[in-house]
Structures are given as C-alpha cells and as structure tokens.
Amino acid sequence: MSVTLDIRLKRANKVYLEGPIQLISSNIEVAKAGKIPGGKTEIPFEFPLHTKGNKVLYETYHGVFVNIQYTLRCDMKRSLLAKDLSRSCEFIVHCQPQKSKVIPTPVNFTITPDTLQSREKNSLPKFLIRGHLDATNCVISLPLTGEVVVENSDVPIKSIELQLVRVETCGCAEGYARDATEIQNIQIAEGDVCHSLAIPIYMIFPRLFTCPTLETTNFKVEFEVNVVVVLHDDHLITENFPLKLCRL
C-alpha cells in the first residue's frame, strides 16, 4: 500500500516534475504460503494509515499540477512454473471533518458594463444582471446554490453558464507558479431568457476533482466559480467568486 503526492511546477510553458513525494509505503502479509482451495476465497485484512516522519495525509485529489492518490497493490507469489499475479487499485480517503460549524457567507452581485474590468466595456451593449450565491464558504458534500436574474439587456442572451475552476499554486527553490484550470462547466440557461425571472444556481462538487481548500508550505489548492453570460455574438461576460471548501 502506498500514498504519493505528485506536484508538477509549470514555468516558461514547461512542466517540471517536483514529485512524486511518497507519504506512505507499507507491506503486510495477508496469507502465508500454501494452497488455495478451488472456488471463491476471501482473505480479510486491515491496516492503519501512518505517515512517514512528520508528513501529513491529505484528502484524495486529482488535479493538473497536484495529485494526491492512495493506491493498494496485491501481489500473489506463485511457484516457479507459474507467473506471479498482481493487481492495483486506488481507494478514496476523506480528511477528518472539521468540528466547528460553517457560517454561510452569502454574496450578492450586480453585473453591468461599468462593473466589468475590460477595456471594451464602453463598446458593450447595456445590460443589468443581478443575483446571489447562498454561500462562498461551502461544504464539499453539499451543492453550491443561488440564483441569477437578467433584469434587462439590449441584446439577446445566448447562454448562462457556471464554471468551476481549480487554482493550483506550486513552489520550489526557483519560485512559485499559479495556474487556474477548468474542472466543469454547467449550462443553467439557454437562449434569450425572460427578464426579471430568477434562474436557480445549482452545482454539485465532483468528488475526485475537488477537495477541501488546501494550503501547505509547498503547494496550495484553491477553488473559484465563474458566472458566465454569453451574448448572441459570443461575447463573454464573466463574474468571478473565490470559494473556500471544507468537510463537515
């Protein structure tokens, strides 16, 4: 059984491998040498997860530049005339839930040409979009919820989408690299939606590609959500919200 933390540092459009860092590696014998009878044989086993030295166990996470994986490999040694058998599989680990309650931090937002940080905002058509997120301190096992309302728009709207983004920061002696990549994109409205109609926001956090917000000496894993409005000419209007994920 082994646990590896794989960190890749991206600099000057090149990716350098800083890991993998092995957090756990242990071997246990679950059955002594002998013959296995015909039919189905089940051999129970268990083992504690103890780290090497002062290393810390993190929650399972599959990212682009940071990967935390727990792998179990079973080897069956056979006689000289038969080939040994081996099979590996990944198992999922959750971190210890925090005991303190999460206080919801609702966020209201208003999107107009004046609120956008864009050089082209003077050439944009007039629009007014309001909404809110019920919380930006989110429990990872619960959905992200809220609503968005298009109050008015001089041009038709093509689509409204939710984009979940991972922000991975990796560091070494040369410095730090921060990269944001998309995890998933969900369309919550299609076409020129009715004005002043509340459109619900509902997004489930995918298990393997998210984890509680993590900050260590060598790397950070953070998350953000973008509310993206696509106009009829494919012009994108984006509002960004940092999220803090935790497990209860």
From TrEMBL:
GO biological process terms on file: intracellular protein transport
Q: Which domain of life is it from?
A: Eukaryota
Q: Family assignment?
A: Belongs to the VPS26 family.
Protein known as: VPS26 endosomal protein sorting factor C
The organism of origin for this protein: Haplochromis burtoni (Burton's mouthbrooder)
